[in-house]
Amino acid sequence: MTARKDIEAITERIRERSKPRREIYLERVDAAAGSTANRGVLSCGNLAHGFAACSPSEKAILAADRVPNLGIITSYNDMLSAHQPYETYPQLIKQAARDAGGVAQVAGGVPAMCDGVTQGQPGMELSLFSRDVIAMATAIGLSHNMFDAAVYLGICDKIVPGLVIGALTFGHLPAVFIPGGPMTSGLPNDEKARVRQLYAEGKVGRAELLEAESKSYHGPGTCTFYGTANSNQMLMEIMGLHTPGASFVNPGTPLRDALTREAAKRALAITALGNEYTPVGRMFDERSVVNGIVGLHATGGSTNHTMHLVAMAAAAGITLTWQDISDLSEAVPLLARVYPNGLSDVNHFHAAGGMGFLIRELLDAGLLHEDIQTVWGKGLRPYTVEAKLAADGTVVREPAPAKSGDEKVLAPFPKAFQPTGGLKVLTGNLGHAIIKTSAVKPERRFVEAPAIVLDSQQALNDAFKAGELDRDFIAVIRFQGPKANGMPELHKLTTVLGILQDRGHKVALVTDGRMSGASGKVPAAIHVTPEALEGGFIGKVRNGDMVRLDAEAGTLEVLVEAAELKTRMVPRIDLSENTHGFGRELFAGFRELALRADHGASAFGAAL
């Protein structure tokens, strides 16, 4: 089945725009596959170093270059819940490789930081650029040229996009991504949010707040709300980089382990040494990028991916724009409501039919490219399934349920929650911005109010505590872009603005910073570009200026005469406190080189 004409037209537009860069990229992939795709080019000294720690039998077969060697890139650490399960994966993968007649080695580790830990802290200013560090660390791990394919153990925020970028720079190698799965459901997310608001209002203490947070984030696995981490897993499956049905199986279960072993064997089966060679650089094309965007809209996914997908596509020679993302939003309905877009969590989404149901609904509606190449083979239709554990401990797949298990969480196409996607691009005299509409009630998607201009989220929180914000306003938080301070998430604003909205005030946020996949019920125009530090007009807004945010019309404007706005100067502010401490001095070069948010906010610039 082919995609609908409007989806095909947007895809073709991306293809034509990308053609010069994509052709160069594919030439490089083919050249690498033909000359350096395995250990045959290594000298004896190179090879001896590469397998010195292997067993005698592994040395013998690696020396003969007859069997595939699987590289493992891991983001394991045991401080972060989502990454702790990866501790045992290398041994599972190595045994699966041996069972399949191959070898597996841990090629390298990449850092994994958690925005949940660093929210409102100096370390958050490293978060976005950690994606680029992860890409570079991936490249270092694979640079030894010992491998015929690679598996990638990563799940959260910047980790998966960084791994994808790194994998695409080794586009001649097959790549299979292996998720860890979400933690089991704990305290409902809306109850956690309620306690946060009570704490912000001084109605409960820190002990009560910590108890609620600990009951919500309570065990191994990703957080259960639909933020960037779980949006990552949706993307990897709908783009064909996971094995079918792998995304949302809880860690520490027999099925999770079986899926991991299966993924390792599949990676070995698609190397150049076999008959199903599937280099990731060719597999990841314009169609798979469009499929990812469609999935993002259909599920109301993370705003971060408006940057990550641009950067990931660039690594494959594909030029993606926010206009492409915006046009696809108009074509794709919202089919999932997972917190913060609804009350249920990602485990409820999975139980209602999950990815198999979602992909089938989108395929049948002509909203996805069915003919893409995946790590599982040709076509996306095999992903319309549910993975289960067989009696012998292997994975079996059954067709996804014909009906949603809960239409309040996962809707069939004819009963979509809204006719357009969960993300929208805003344009106007303040530049371009992103808003997540899926969590915002329709009656709150238009706000026109005077600006309160601030240069940090702490300043707004202080103003709230001082009782200065009990009125209608639009908070303009500037100098939060990639070049200014690394574009931190400003998620701590959610609680304060939510309280004021609940009190009946019309409030909104406009910022050149980020609000993450957890963007909530308050309308927030984020990723404003150009950023204030680059002279963007967000830096020209003054206290009291009327600002209009219209998410339905897709506009963001300060209601000031164009002639006056042109004469205003962006103020110079002291950002020196953002340049040192917590490792921030090491990222000065990243801030200097960073591209605009709508170009992916990458420090690699024109290198990709």
Give structural notes:
The protein is an alpha/beta fold and 608 residues long. The protein has two domains: 5-184 and 219-399, no CATH class; 423-575, Glucose Oxidase, domain 1, CATH 3.50.30. It contains 22 helices and 16 strands. The strands form four sheets. The protein has an eight-stranded mixed beta sheet with strand order 9-10-14-13-12-11-15-16. It has a four-stranded parallel beta sheet with strand order 2-1-3-4, sandwiched between helices. Helix 1 crosses helix 15 (322-331). The radius of gyration is 24 Å and the shape is globular.
- The Rg value, from CA coordinates, equals 24 Å
Uncertain residue ranges: none
Oligomer state equals single chain
How many domain regions? 2
Q: Number of DSSP helices?
A: 22
Residues in helices, as a percent range: 25-40%
Beta strands, count: 16
- Which range does the strand content fall in? 5-15%
Protein structure class: alpha/beta
Q: Provide mean pLDDT, rounded.
A: 93
- Give the termini distance in whole angstroms: 33 Å
Strand order of the largest sheet: 9-10-14-13-12-11-15-16
Largest sheet: 8 strands, mixed
